[in-house]
Write a structure and sequence with these properties.
single chain, 200 residues, four-stranded antiparallel sheet, 8 helices
Amino acid sequence: MHRKPAQTSVEISGLIAERWSPRAFAADRPVSRRDLTALMEAARWAPSCFNDQPWRFIVCDKFSDGEAWQIALSAVAEKNRLWAHNAPVLLLAVAMNNFNHNGKPNRWAPYDTGAASLSICIQATALGLAAHQMGGFDADLARQSFGLPEDCTPMAMIAVGYPADASILPEDFQAGERGERSRAALEQRFYCGHWGKAFD
């Protein structure tokens, strides 16, 4: 995988700096059950409001359950399928809408499910795997195909696998795969004590 470490103003954890979202996956390299379990454990220990753990993940491994994997791939947006079809694992991240302990609406569920999903991505980096989160998928189709309950919200599809060279991608994707990563400047997104007062 082409390394694209984050360019930061101060040093940050190497795992965070090295994490990015490639699209080139090695289609012929399965992810071991041990490594998949490590990804799930990383998500399991994410923080959540009231320790409710509102996330649910449907794991679709092409090498152990090709039918489930194909169902997941069919829910991925057409443009994303052009590269996601090489990922040996597709994970559907789902947020439960209501708290376990009292059944009341949990407005923090999407936030907490995002934290669990990021934990998966960072653990993937630690294992030499690549992970790419996608908002481009058909949530209604995923809900129907996987038999999801009514009181949940499908949040993202996450492609996981071993990285491959960008040359395997359709030409439209190759420049982005090789290009530099970028982020807005700190002062554009982080404020000091009051909205709009730049962090410096």
